[in-house]
Write a structure and sequence with these properties.
Mg(2+) binds at residues 12, 39, 152, 154, 252-253. GO terms for molecular function: double-stranded DNA 3'-5' DNA exonuclease activity; metal ion binding. Belongs to the DNA repair enzymes AP/ExoA family. The chain is an alpha+beta fold. It has one domain: Deoxyribonuclease I, Chain A. 25% of the residues lie in helices and 25% in strands. The chain has 7 helices and 12 strands. A 6-stranded mixed beta sheet has the order 3-4-2-1-12-11. Helix 3 runs parallel beside helix 4. It is globular and about 45 Å long.
Amino acid sequence: MARGTLKLATYNVNGIRSRLPHLLAWLDKEAPDIACLQELKAIDEGFPIGDIRAAGYGALWKGQRSWNGVAILAKGADPVESRRVLPGDRADDQSRYLEAAAHGIIVGCLYLPNGNPQPGPKFDYKLKWFDRLIRHARSLFDSGHPVALAGDFNVVPTDFDIYNPRSWLKDALLQPESRERYQKLLAQGWIDAVRESHPDERIYTFWDYFRQHWQRDSGLRIDHILLNRQLAPRLKQAGVDRWVRGLPKASDHAPTWVTFKAEAVRRRAKQ
């Protein structure tokens, strides 16, 4: 990593115990300064904090047995927790949101509900969760601090973000209600870092396990990193570490990343 550069990444590991070798190999090779993880699929006691620390990272995590689970890793530092739940529903006990400060920025790590099958209660939950995120995101955007929202949003923003929308028309990831909420979030002023960096390029972050979709590059872009007005001007690059998806028994997601001018971010954070 070049001097004065900060790298933030998000990675749906799809089971942190089974994918731990992949995670550690990625951390060693790509060395993100901040990494947001989703779908830990492990209780808090099952989080491999010893291995993570041995790799040079501090961590916060919120697990859940068999499902969900989110974590924030920081290279050479301990993230400072600011929130463990998405506000707006005290009865919601799913582990889908974690917020912390690390390396001069505030990061909201999220695993937005999939919503399938739709219509139905799972899709209703997805939309309600999305509405709660939109409300909370407004306060983060207006906080005056550099903020990133990073994670698996389970939304394909446009038809340009999927290899072929026709076979996914009934999927919750492409429904008008899901896409409208994503656009409503962006309308607050958030910048979609990957699309900002690659306006005319088809980029995917997810390839399911069916019909050789990985081998055929039949992918979807559902992992996003959004930047507020304090952070967006510092954006340098964004991309996807596709090589991780090509590993044996890999997660169906690949890590998505952005880089910033770190020194400028830190100066702004102190104001």
